[in-house]
Amino acid sequence: NCETGVTPTPCGQCTACREIDEGRFVDLIEVDAASRTKVDDTRELLDNVQYAPARGRYKVYLIDEVHMLSTHSFNALLKTLEEPPPHVKFLLATTDPQKLPVTVLSRCLQFNLKRFPPGMIFQRLSEIATAENIEFEPEALRLVARAAEGSMRDALSLLDQVIAFGGAKLTAEDTRTMLGTLDRAQVFAIVEALAGRDARAVLAAVEQLDERAPEYREVLGELAAVLQKIALLQAVPDLKLDEAEDVETLKRLADALTPEDVQLYYQIAIVGRRDLELAPDARGGFEMTLLRMLWFGMVQPDAAASGSPSAPPQARPRPTPVSTAGSTPASSAGPAPVSSTGSAPAPSAAPPPATAGADNDWAKILPQLNLQGAVNLLASHCTLIGKQGARVQLALEADAEPFRRPALEEKLAQALSAYYGESIRLDITIAQASLDTPARQQRAAAEARQEHAREAIERDPNVIAMRETFGATVRPESVKPAD
Fold first, then answer.
1. Strand partners, 392
2. Of 61, 224, 227, 456, which is most buried with the most CB atoms under 10 A?
3. What is the total count of domains within the chain?
4. Which of residues 336 and 60 earns the better pLDDT score?
5. Same domain, 159 and 95
6. Are strands 28-32 and 169-170 parallel, antiparallel or unpaired?
7. The domain spanning residue 288 has which CATH number?
8. Residues 241 and 250: beta-carbon distance below 8 Å
9. Which of 46, 75, 105 is the last residue of a domain?
């Protein structure tokens, strides 16, 4: 109905555009189907369809939440929708199109509107609050933006409720209370405790969380949402997230966790959320879900590369008192002579013999560094080239280059400094050739155990008898090593 003509972009300046914006255009009739569901209301509306528009080019009927109409109301609409007068346009808005009868859908053009991203909703709410001279904490509006789930109208309704609830200033605390949502800092605390393999910190976080009597199913949903954002940052480190997200905290957690840990935790979270109602009590089920993440995750750092069941001792965080002064000289006596006596003028000529000996040393050194998570994953794909003074040279497999991050290298250098008893400068180079890394050794050992288990099954008399008697076959994926 713009006076400049029918275009995808109305001018917004003419009389018709301004009246539509202000909600007083006589030829735009808005109908709330949620409150006018009866067939009599629909017939009253249709009786006025025949009259020409008073001001505009078309008379527009906007029926909101149209899926709420009764079956008789839809039947009354069918004839008019099939052959509408040339001066009438119907806009049927719904959040649940599956509830509309097929006979109505077949007579309409469907346009699926995408959801607003939380960042855009946050920006719009900030503009509105500023224009209305309302003081607010940015976190309060971020909570509203996330709770709106992509709907700008719902966001504005929630903002009105928060203003009525909080009074002069919108605070994050009041907003959480009104929305019944969780403080994301508490979810971050749980993820940090899981990353540190600290069962005591996990249970302490649950205890603090329980003071607010939360809905634990929603907590697991929020935990899964945080893990999903972490997984995105691990897959694409320079990914631009919404303004409504705490990006710095998410990046720090992405560095602290391995991708395998994140995938495992996410799966356990959504399964735990599904099965929570089967637990004797909600808190107990929530704690068991977190402990399942903790204990299964302890296998991940080393098993990620090899699938080895013997990984837990190396991944267990309790020996964090790191290497003692007594063990440092004894351990460093091995690697130091290799690099110092290995001809310094031509280090590139020495790799074949030096790396062969250094590989064994690195496999022995690695467990004593007490590394966890992504740092351990990075170190397990390296070999020790040599140590010259305070400089340690490592070679990294080319396939493992995505694990290389400055934060992880710094943590590895700190662990080596504690091991050698001096400040270590770490130098990591990418090797194009295949390396005999601890990860590769563990993988080979796991494959050997698997092959041994398969051969043992094939030789088992009971298996042979069942194969000969019943024609049974062994499913290879079901064979697992006993130890």
1. 387, 426
2. 227
3. 4
4. 60
5. no
6. unpaired
7. 1.20.272.10
8. yes
9. 105
CATH code for the domain of 391: 3.30.300.150
Q: Are residues 355 and 458 in the same domain?
A: yes
Q: Is 144 within a domain?
A: yes
> 93, 22, 14: which is closest to 56 by C-alpha?
14
CB 276 within 8 A of CB 286: yes
Please indicate, yes or no, if residue 345 is contained in any of the structural domains: no
When pLDDT is averaged across residues 242-253 and rounded to a whole number, the result is 78
User: Using one digit for the tens of pLDDT, what is the confidence trace for 105-125?
Assistant: 888 888 888 888 888 899 999
pLDDT, tens digit (0-9, with 9 covering 90-100), for 315-333: 334 333 333 333 333 333 3
Is the pLDDT reported for residue 168 higher than 60?
Answer: yes
Pairwise pLDDT comparison (180 vs 164), residue with the higher score: 164
Q: What is the C-alpha separation between 481 and 451, in angstroms, rounded?
A: 9
Is residue 326 domain-resident? no
Residue 228 has pLDDT above 90, yes or no: yes
Q: How far apart are CA 360 and CA 43, in angstroms?
A: 86
Q: How confident is the model at residue 245 (pLDDT cuts 50, 70, 90)?
A: low
**Model-wide pTM > 0.85:** no
Q: Give the pLDDT confidence score for residue 394 in this predicted structure.
A: 92
Q: Does residue 425 lie in a domain region?
A: yes
SS3 for the chain, per residue? CCCCCCCCCCCCCCHHHHHHHHCCCCCEEEEECCCCCCHHHHHHHHHCCCCCCCCCCCEEEEEECHHHCCHHHHHHHHHHHHCCCCCEEEEECCCCHHHCCHHHHCCCCCCCCCCCCHHHHHHHHHHHHHHCCCEECHHHHHHHHHHCCCCHHHHHHHHHHHHHHHCCEECHHHHHHHHCCCCHHHHHHHHHHHHCCCHHHHHHHHHHHHCCCCCHHHHHHHHHHHHHHHHHHHHCCCCCCCCCCCHHHHHHHHHHCCHHHHHHHHHHHHHHHHHHHHCCCHHHHHHHHHHHHHHHHCCHHHHHHHCCCCCHHHHCCCCCCCCCCCHHHHHHCCHHHHHHHCCCCCHHHCHHHHHHHHHHHHHHHHHHCCCCHHHHHHHHCEEEEEEECCEEEEEEEHHHHHHCCHHHHHHHHHHHHHHHCCCCEEEEEEECCCCCCHHHHHHHHHHHHHHHHHHHHHHCHHHHHHHHHHCCCCCHHHCCCCC
Question: Is 257 in contact with 230 (CB distance < 8 Å)?
Answer: yes
State the CATH number of the domain containing residue 69.
Answer: 3.40.50.300
CB within 8 Å of 118: residues ≥ 6 apart: 142, 145, 146, 148, 150, 242, 243, 244, 245
